Amino acid sequence: MNIFRLAGDMTHLASVLVLLLKIHTIKSCAGISLKTQELYAIVFATRYLDLFTDYISLYNTLMKLVFLGSSFSIVWYIRHHKIVRRSYDKDQDTFRHYFLIIPCLLLALLINERFTFKEVMWTFSLYLEAVAILPQLVLLQRTRNIDNLTGQYVLLLGAYRVLYILNWIYRYFTQPHYVHWITWISGLVQTLLYADFFYYYFQSWKNNVKLELPA
């Protein structure tokens, strides 16, 4: 564990808490893509298959449980909560996310470090996480309705990935033989997808105006 990994985990956790705060207290999921949340639920479900077989640490186990539980809770809220689901903009959240799932699965079957079920699923989760934010970004571009909590949620998700890249760089120079090309490339692709959002977020902050993404 290093400071970049810890900061990345805490930022990731903060993004989930911000989203849960919006949904639970305001009883609204306006501006939130159900498609992205479903993709994240798949990411965590396929990544943490070792949850009850390979114990690493209490911290590791708790974080896995938190991200699994929160991701499926958010999907449940948007789909089934009698008040929250009314604010879901189904007509705008039309990104066909299965077009992301199938190529990521095929890529994981072709390019992985070991051809075992758990390893392929782990690799699939990396590829899918890299593009899972796309339905959310497309929804924000379509609706141009970005409230403060939604903007902070996406910003924290992007910051988490940037901090993890710093963690990988730190480990590369401090740990011998630390080379994980699949993880690094997937993380870099994911970070690049946030670049446009980062630009407009900081422009809105600097000029003290409402955040809007170009259509």
TrEMBL record:
It is found in: Endoplasmic reticulum membrane. GO terms for molecular function: ER retention sequence binding. Its main location: endoplasmic reticulum. InterPro entries: ER_ret_rcpt (IPR000133). GO terms for cellular component: endoplasmic reticulum membrane. The chain crosses the membrane at residues 55-78, 98-115, 121-140, 152-170, 182-202. It is a multi-pass membrane protein. Keywords: Endoplasmic reticulum, ER-Golgi transport, Membrane, Protein transport, Receptor, Signal, Transmembrane, Transmembrane helix, Transport. Residues 1-31 form the signal peptide. One of its GO terms (biological process) is protein transport. The keyword Transmembrane applies. Pfam families: ER_lumen_recept. Belongs to the ERD2 family. This is ER lumen protein-retaining receptor. It comes from Sesamum indicum. The gene is LOC105158670.
